[in-house]
Design brief:
This protein has 13 helices and no strands. By secondary structure, it is an all-alpha fold. The longest helix is centred in the first third of the chain and has 35 residues. The relative contact order is 0.16. One of its GO terms (biological process) is siderophore-iron import into cell.
Length: about 325
């Protein structure tokens, strides 16, 4: 009973925190003044002749919603990767998925000039290629393989993808400015168009992840035990990998490369509610949404009225956390 009450308290606190963050994201640090009450009125009863309401409805609301669903998606992807590999340092950014997705987008934009429909596919293909390389080079499912091998392979593949991304930008100079802004990771360009194509796909992948949660719990017991329970490991791993690639690919293609969310949030969530993925995944999604909206608000505050990319803010927060986790896992 005590555990259930604690979990309910955590979930309630996160929901309240998410609502407050969304509200704060609607009116804070606006070049054109927007009051706290304008934020509420702009959502529930917008007046087309009130500039503050137009800003809330057309600029801030889609931005906040996109930040929330991207934060939930990247956090969920990191949790699934850690469960799949049984490695507490696994995350889309550390295992090369983010960098591979970014390379796919950069090549699609600069070399092939794809449209908005093809960009997520390019991101997923790039993320898949990078992840497969990391898993092969790191000996992910070899008996006796060290967890550090995966981390080193992830760092190497991320560096390679980053170098190739920069090379593609240099070779196609007319697209360089837009790609570099996108690579920094920012919610500033999120719009209702972005939300319209990304949210249904991300929401579907999040629902699939929640359905997979009981099976992810079984992976902790080891491959032989899972097989003895009648679970097809290959199908389970493929389903988890598909969820991760969709979550990361669509997120990266919509707002750019956002790092460290998938690494930090799962660890905080485990401290709050434990290791049961049926509870851990929803809490991770809520916490990830709160973190990314908060980072977006902070990105506007740093050098207001100029904006700092939210990806840079999250990297500043995430790098010390990563170093701490590395020291803890020695």
């Amino acid at each position: 009973m005590h555990v259930k009450m604690r979990i309910m308290s955590v979930v309630t606190t996160l929901i309240v925190g998410l609502v407050l963050m969304v509200w704060l994201g609607l009116f804070s640090y606006s070049a054109v003044p927007v009051s706290a009450m304008d934020a509420i009125a702009g959502v529930w009863s917008p007046q087309p002749d009130v500039i503050a309401h137009v800003i809330v409805q057309e600029i801030r609301l889609p931005r906040v919603l996109e930040a929330a669903i991207v934060g939930a998606s990247l956090s969920c992807a990191g949790t699934l990767m850690q469960g799949l590999t049984r490695n507490p340092l696994a995350s889309p950014s550390l295992f090369g998925v983010n960098a591979g997705a970014a390379l796919g987008i950069a090549l699609a934009t600069t070399v092939f000039s794809t449209d908005i429909i093809s960009s997520p596919i390019a991101a997923m293909v790039g993320g898949l290629a990078a992840w497969v390389l990391v898993m092969v080079l790191g000996g992910a499912w070899k008996m006796g393989a060290e967890r550090g091998q995966l981390v080193l392979a992830g760092i190497a593949i991320s560096a390679l993808c980053g170098a190739l991304t920069k090379a593609s930008v240099i070779l196609v100079e007319d697209q360089a400015a837009s790609v570099m802004v996108w690579l920094a990771g920012s919610f500033a360009h999120a719009s209702w168009d972005t939300w319209a194509w990304s949210s249904p796909v991300l929401a579907s992948a999040l629902i699939l992840s929640l359905l997979l949660a009981p099976k992810v719990n079984l992976l902790v017991m080891g491959d032989e035990r899972v097989k003895s329970l009648g679970v097809n490991l290959n199908v389970l791993r493929a389903a988890i990998a598909l969820s991760v690639l969709v979550l990361v690919g669509v997120s990266v293609s919509s707002v750019g490369a956002i790092a460290f969310v998938g690494l930090i949030v799962p660890h905080i969530a485990r401290l709050l509610v434990g290791y049961d993925h049926r509870i851990l995944l929803p809490v991770t999604m809520l916490l990830g949404a709160v973190l990314t909206i908060g980072a977006d608000v902070l990105s506007r505050a740093v050098i207001f009225p100029t904006e700092t990319p939210a990806g840079a803010v999250l990297a500043i927060i995430g790098a010390p956390c990563f170093l701490y986790l590395v020291r803890q896992k020695r």
